[in-house]
Design goal:
By secondary structure, the chain is α/β, with parallel strands linked by helices. Helix content is 40%, strand content 13%.
Length: 385
Amino acid sequence: MIEAGLDVHVFAGKPRDDFQIPGDLKKYHLRERTSYQGIPNSALVRFGNGVRLVIKYIWRYPVPILRSLNVFRYGRSAATFSLLYQIIPFLGKGPFDIIHCQFGTYGPQGLYLKQVVAETAKVVTSFRGFDATKSVQAHPDLYQTLFREGDLFLPVSHSLKRLIIQLGCDEDKIVVLPSGINCHTLPFSPKTLKRGEPVRVITIARLVEKKGIAYAIHAIETLVKSGKFIQYFIIGDGELRGDLERLIGEKDLTKYVQFLGWKSHEEVIRLLQGSHILMAPSVTARDGDQEGIPNAIKEAMALGLPVIGTQHSGIPEIVENGVSGFLVQERNAEALADRLSFLIDNSEKWADMGRAGRVRVETDYDVKILNDRLEELYGQVCKKT
């Protein structure tokens, strides 16, 4: 996108020392194009530094500085200097054509930034899952102003589109734009099972409720008891790891289920290449949290793995039941075990399923195609008055 003539700058919350930009994005110099808000956690430090920022910048940028301090319009965000810190990276860098908020929860902040420091900019907001589900449970009116004043909304799946329409978004402002993957760096390889080799099943997920890992573990237990030669690898970490490890111990599955923790993207791809089947047992969490369409599914399909997923959020939009994998109802360990058992007993079907998955991902989820579409949408929204 940058090569096509867009002048892109990234404004983020806090830097992460452990974050590594993928190799194919380094050429865009994203680190050099990124600014951070740097809002101190301590109220005292935030106030002291905020006063110094006001003194430093008010002479050069009086209008946006004074706007950011308007407590009558922006309430607590202005009174705590939070809005002041948010606008600092924007000063002297405009004019801006578009403010693209990468999650719905950043949309209201994007509107504030438009009003304070980028009045002519269009506000584009992506919705990726939790922001259209969990986030509105406690705050049903969270997006009321955003839907009215925002210019374009980009949910990553049709299921999320339906949700934000129910929340009050004008359908005419919505375009479904999934997150893409770079298919050219993911070589397709049909999956086969060698004699005497265990079937290697893999899940890539944060260990949180909506990922449904406990149901996958129960499914593995069923297959182990039936005598299937199987190994289950879980990549990721999270708040439920302790509970899941106890479950594995209680079920006497430590020889069959292994937690691998967080891995780099390159390591994840190698592990996917060495696996036979991806399992994505996502569920709607008790707090309403849902997926968009997990990138792990897209990458697994691109590499040739059949997928067993659930009838959850956007997963049925990418996994075609019986063609590129299987879909079962949420929270149904028996159904997961049944479909997994079928794939184990019919390994000759893996290659055809893998090819179907590859075609689907290349057609609908290739990052180059989707980036070109995003650039086109930017041009269209900028022309609107």
